[in-house]
Amino acid sequence: MCLSLSCPLFALFPADSLHAKSTEEVKLIHSDVLYKNRMDVRADVLVGHVRLYHDGMYLDCDSARFYKDENTFNAYGNVKMMQGDTLTLTSDTLLYDGPMMQAHALGNAVLTHRNTQLTTAVIDYDRWEGVGFYPKHGVLVDGENVLNSDYGQYTPALNEAVFKDNVVLDNPKFNLKTNELQYYSDTKVAKIVSETNIVSSDSTFVYALRGEYNTQTGQASLMDRSHIYKEMRDIVGDSLFCDEESGVSEAFGNVILLDVENRCMLTGDYCRYENESGVAIATDNAVFHEFSESDTLYVHADTLKMVTHNAQTDSVYRDLFAYHKVRMFRTDIQGVCDSLVTHELDSCTYMYGQPILWNDVQQIFGEEIRVYNNDSTVDWIHIVNQAMTVEQVDSVSYNQVSSREMLCYFKNGILEKNEAKGNVYVCYFMDESDGTRIGMNYTETPELHLYMKDKKVHKIWMQTSSGVMYPPIAIPPEKRYLSGFAWFDYIRPKNKGDIFDWRAKKKEQELKKTERRVVPIQSLEKL
Hints:
The chain has a 38-stranded antiparallel β-sheet that branches. The protein starts with about 25 loop residues before the first strand and ends in a 47-residue tail after the last helix. The protein has one helix at about 475-480, and strands at about 25-30, 35, 40-55, 55-65, 70-85, 85-95, 100-115, 115-125, 130-135, 140, 145-150, 150-155, 160-170, 175-185, 190, 195-200, 205-210, 210-215, 220-230, 235-245, 250-260, 265-275, 280-285, 285-290, 295-300, 305-310, 315-330, 335-345, 350, 355-360, 360-365, 370-375, 375-390, 400-410, 415-430, 435-455, 455-460, 465-470. Strand 6 and strand 7 form a beta hairpin. Helix content is about 0%, strand content about 65%.
């Protein structure tokens, strides 16, 4: 390696670091010995306790070659360059160009600025620009943060460091790996500018392409479809914000919150997840996806809230809350209501606010519907108050059952049995085996059990019933449809994309909530 000024120092710096030359002379303050060497007649050879000064910078070393005419020097042994009271550069050897104000430090080079220390084999320091470069592997230590890279530069005045190639940031709380990183020692913020992986001590994994990560607080603002992955739960969005201390993550724009363990997913344009409480909230085109072996259930509402309980145990379960304008679709079942609550622990979904459910040609509705599942498949349904089931026979004929409450039992997703209790009214169309219409049966009974086979009525049991059979040509118009009958095909979700198009019941078809009568409190004194 050339250690004389025949190898220009400015060639060691990036081209954009060229600037006007300094006119101030390098001054010799002290040297134990000064002599000339005929092998290098341009240089003053300095030996012992050498100190030089140039434009606010002092340099100490064991020996040096001072090129007074060129205003440069080469320093050897225990070299220490000091600028002000905040910056020092130590090395085994240092080549200094006074006019260009550039230093080339070789061997055990250490650049120290306040509490930040950069260690590498070679440091090129441009005093004019206030930037230190290292072309080989270097380590920057800043408190708890230790940054390694193959190339980098550090600007003390701006507290800014740029690292490239095999960048690793180690901290007791996390490990960060990337190919390019910007770091600010005053704020402890790492600016992400390329593909980056961050693994926290609590096993949280962050994948990011662009953004900022505060190494002290654990707060991150991420862009460009970044991911936050923890405990089988992955959050991705156009932009993400996470706070390790509070455990809160927020995502914006085309958000996906995937719960692999529970085989479900939340999507929307905004999602918030609280790690401590296990609460996830999605709004703005929010959809809950429940994956099963047969099909996927899609649930849309203005706001979706999913709560995971006992997340780190074998007894994990979740609750789902859907608020306002709920629409759901699955191939075998569709539904609408104003609000919905699912408790996984008791395998029940509660539907409130004008709820309606469809299964094939079957439609059920009432004041409240409770759906009980068995491994993501409908097992039975409980309709509370003003219960009604409607089966479409043809374009104008419908089999109908209404009662105070109703229980519908399913097998393999198909209605198998229907139990109606309290003020039961039945309107049923009867056909011959060849499809010829016999007539319509109108019946009133306190209780009814209806059994299905091959999606058709197989047999009916009624308690103390009274009814009339009307021939097809003599069916009274007022008997063809039960009181409260409605066919809500205009509301029914047609596919998973249709769940976003809210359609309410016509005003005249809305159920009026049943008023519960309260027995007045009796006083013994008045009896």
